[in-house]
Each structure stands twice: as C-alpha cells, then as structure tokens.
Amino acid sequence: MADVFITGGTGYMGRSLIAALVKRQHAVRALVRAGSESKLLGSCSIVVGDALDAASFAHYVPPADTFVQLVGFPKPDPRKAKEFRAVDLRSGLAGVSVARQAGIQHFVYVSVAQPAPIMKAYIEPRMEVEAAIRAAGLNATILRPWYVLGPGHRWPYLLLPLYALFELLPGTRASARRLGLVTLKQMIDALVKAIENPSHGIRIVEVSDIRRLL
Questions:
Q1: Percent helix / strand / coil, the chain, rounded to 5
Q2: Residue 128 belongs to what domain range?
Q3: What's the mean pLDDT when you consider all of the chain?
Q4: What is the CATH number of the domain that holds 38?
Q5: pLDDT at 177
Q6: How far apart are CA 160 and CA 11, in angstroms?
Q7: What average pLDDT does the segment 1-6 reach?
Q8: Do 136 and 96 contact (CB within 8 A), yes or no?
Q9: Which pLDDT score is estimated for 163?
C-alpha cells in the first residue's frame, strides 16, 4: 500500500485516479483549491492549498512516498501559451520543489508526447518540468500521452481512421505511434501501475507503453 499525494485531483484524470487508488487500498491525499473540497468529499483525505504556491501545501506532503503531479490548464490549445506557463509550468516546478524537500521516493508526472509539429507552446513548459525533475535528482516516472480520450474529450475518435492509415505508411508511422491516442482508462491503468511499481532513476512512458500498461 502506497501513501500518495496528488495535485490536480479534481481534474479530468485526477478523480478517476483517486477512485482507482482508493479501491486498491492506497492512502490518498489530494490538494484542492479552497471552495473545491466538495468535489472530492468522501473519496480521499483533502488538503486545501494552492498548487502554484509550494509554501501553501509543502508541510502537508510528508509522509507520502509517492507524489503525483496532474495539474494542467484544461483543454490545451496552441493559443494558450501564457496559461501553460502560468499554470502547467509553475505548478510543476512547485511540485518538484516540494517533493525534493520532502524526500519523496517517487515522483509521477504527466507530461506530453514530444517532439511534435504543433503545440510547441504546450510542450515547452512540460519539457522544463521534466528538466527540473532530473535536476532535483528525483526517482520519477514521466508519462507522455498526446491526447487522452474520455468524457468531454471524444472528438478525436473521428481521427482514428487517419491514424490507422498513417501507421501503415513508412514515412508517417513513427509520428503516428508517438502522437497516438490513448483512453482515459489506459492512462489511469498506467498511472496506477507506475505508482505501484516505482522507478529507480527516470522512467519515460510513451504512448505505446501506456497502451500496453508499461
């Protein structure tokens, strides 16, 4: 059984991950903004704080042995560069700082598939957080999905025939696989497996790994 501290627990992946971890008897504490406590009442222990401000929650992290960083600006768009840096980057760096100071044994971070011809403004902040994880000397699992299909995120299903075609063509096969689609269930399964099998050093989990559960 792991003691898990999660930021972004009220988000798209967070609530499903918390439910899966609690079902498997893990002890979970989730950081939530003031006023959002009702979203997670009864599902886990709640810590009220600001994911962008390390000082607001650092003293609540011990005795967790796993820190899961899920905070991100919702529904990424190439025009949201300012928001990505203000939310994704800032919260990621805060999480890394707190995890390092708390002596966290395993840091789990949801990054993004890279390189990619689009979404540079989204990818760059995530790469900076990955660099910070390495610089901090943390044992970490970094998951790199491209797009996670699920409730409210279903329109890319229309692209599946194109993905199938691109995976058949030698010139586009590698990109189509690297930037492939995964389901919310696949992401949650991969996150749970990462938490239950902590890495020593840095482990990168690409789309193909997410699909086959690490």
A1: 45, 20, 35
A2: 3-150+181-211
A3: 91
A4: 3.40.50.720
A5: 77
A6: 25
A7: 95
A8: yes
A9: 65
193 occurs within a structural domain: yes
Predicted model pTM: 0.92
Count of domains for the chain: 1
Distance CA 95, CA 91 (A): 6
Between CA 188 and CA 141 the distance in angstroms is 14
What is the spatial distance between Cα 75 and Cα 30, in angstroms, rounded to a whole number? 21
pLDDT of 103 reads 97
**Is 161 a member of any domain?**
no
Question: Per-residue pLDDT for 118 more than 90?
Answer: no
- pLDDT tens for residues 156-185? 766 777 767 777 788 877 777 778 889 999
The Cα–Cα gap between 85 and 92 comes to: 10
Does residue 76 lie within any of the structural domains?
yes
The residues that bridge with 31 in the sheet, in sequence order, are 7, 47
Instruction: Give bridge partners of residue 108 from the DSSP assignment.
Output: 68, 141
Q: Look at residue 171 and tell me if it is in a domain.
A: no
* 25 contacts 42 by C-beta, under 8 angstroms: no
Instruction: Tell how strand 140-143 and strand 202-205 pair up.
Output: parallel
